[in-house]
Amino acid sequence: MIKSLYILLLLLCLSSSAQKNDVLFEKSYSLLNSMLEHPKEYSFKNAVFSVENAYLDGNLDTIAINGQIKVLHNLSLSLIRERFLYYPERDKETVNKWASIFQVMCDTIPLNIKDKNYSYIPYGYDFKDVFGHQQWSDMFVSKLLITRKGNCHSLPYLYKILAEELGVEANLALAPNHIYIKHKSVKDGWYNTELTSGIFPIDAWLMASGYIHIDAIKNGVYMKALDNNESIALVLVDLAQGYQNKFPENDGAFILKCCEAAIRVYPNFANALILKAETHKTQIGKEQSPEVATAQFKELEKEYAHIHRIGYRNMPESMYLGWLLTLKTERNKYENKKLDTFNER
Q1: Beta bridge mates, 118
Q2: Among 48, 73, 210, 335, which is 20 to 30 Å from 34 by CA?
Q3: What element of type H or E holds 141?
Q4: Residue 150: DSSP 8-state
Q5: What is the pTM of this model?
Q6: What's the pLDDT band for 8 if we cut at 50, 70, 90?
Q7: Rg, C-alpha atoms of the chain
Q8: What gap in Å lies between CA 261 and CA 307, rounded to an integer?
Q9: Position 88 pLDDT exceeds 70
Q10: Closest of 179, 155, 140, 134 to residue 53, by C-alpha
């Protein structure tokens, strides 16, 4: 009797905890959806950390996180004031801010505090769990801020957050399994900023992966400078993937809701389309007649055909890591040599 009562209480506690977590995910979804409907409410920082907080059961230390971002913001301002950037065009103020963020994230910076010399150590790349398979939170900006090591998800997200803190635009862009930054300056036009290796690669490096079909470029699947709404679409899929990791036995409803919201503002967002199709795949045949399952399977075939038609090609994870390393092993081949934007004089 006592044992049965204990099990019942345990189940009730687990159910209560799951409901609380579910509420946090719904709250994050509402925030992201509100940003899409009301642009004045947009904040990439708030969007990202609402997703991370939901996954962490509401235990994200936002005070500490915001404090660290404030430190990075102040360091960027200090660099802007104290160094001279040789850049003659009318958008110098904006480019100077981009340069300061790049330095904060990628360069060792000498500091003198109260007559003592220090070295600021930049962020590094964490090769241990690049795709968050071992722990989904390894993809988080909060993890990057704590450990100073991140990946092609958290590093460009932090860059965009810092840019918005400084009042300038930073466009996220996609490649196979990858996120990077695109900027447009008066002097150089559009150019790429790669945080995983701290260089400015030419488009040829992206094409060298072998998995960027010309249709993917034409249809905005890859290499497109994403606007604010499209960036929120990325965060919506982060939310869905976090939910999937948190509740692997879910019915798919919440995941599909996130995917649909993302696709509305970014119709050719491959990750959202794939996650939607994969979720539909798990639903086929569950408590349905064979006729209904057959109809669903035909619809699923159409979804996958559409994903292929817009140019998406699956890149194996092992090949992605090798491609990423080419920026170091073949830096001279892929670095944008015309770009002297961040030269200091």
Answers
A1: 111
A2: 73
A3: helix 141-147
A4: E
A5: 0.92
A6: very low
A7: 22
A8: 17
A9: yes
A10: 140
Burial of 12 (0-12, 13-18, 19+ CB in 10 A): exposed
What is the 3-class SS of 168-211, one letter each residue? CCCEEEEECCEEEEEEEECCCEEEEEECCCCECECHHHHHCCCC
**For residues 195 and 156, is the Cβ–Cβ distance under 8 A?**
yes
What three-state secondary structure class fits 219?
coil
Sequence-distant (≥ 6) Cβ neighbours of residue 29 within 8 angstroms: 236, 239, 254, 257, 258, 261
For the chain, what is the total number of helices (H) and then of strands (E)? 14, 7
Q: φ, ψ for residue 249 (rounded to 5)?
A: -100, 20
What is the structure's pLDDT at 109? 86
Q: Minimal CA–CA distance to 51: which of 28, 68, 33?
A: 28
Place of tokens 């008066």: 186
Asked if the model's pLDDT at residue 14 lies above 70, the reply is no
- Residue 335's identity, in one-letter code, is E
Residue type, 98: W
| DSSP state for residue 131 in the 8-state scheme | T
Secondary-structure percent of the chain, ordered helix, strand, coil, rounded to 5: 60, 10, 30
Task: State how beta strands 124-125 and 149-150 pair.
Answer: parallel
User: Which helix (DSSP H) or strand (DSSP E) does residue 144 occupy?
Assistant: helix 141-147
**pLDDT value of position 19:** 54
Can you tell me which residue has the tokens 């019942």? 8
The rounded mean pLDDT for the chain is 91
- β-strand partners of 201: 335
The one-letter amino acid at 216: A
The H or E element spanning position 117 is strand 116-120
pLDDT of residue 111: 80
Please, which residues have CB within 8 angstroms of residue 32's CB and are 6 or more apart in sequence?
A: 47, 50, 51, 232, 235, 236, 239, 261
Q: CA–CA separation, 193 vs 98, rounded Å?
A: 10
Beta-bridge partners for 117? 112
Inter-CA distances, 262 with 215, 257, 259, Å: 21, 9, 5
pLDDT, one tens digit per residue, over 260-303 is: 999 999 999 999 999 999 999 999 877 678 888 888 899 999 99
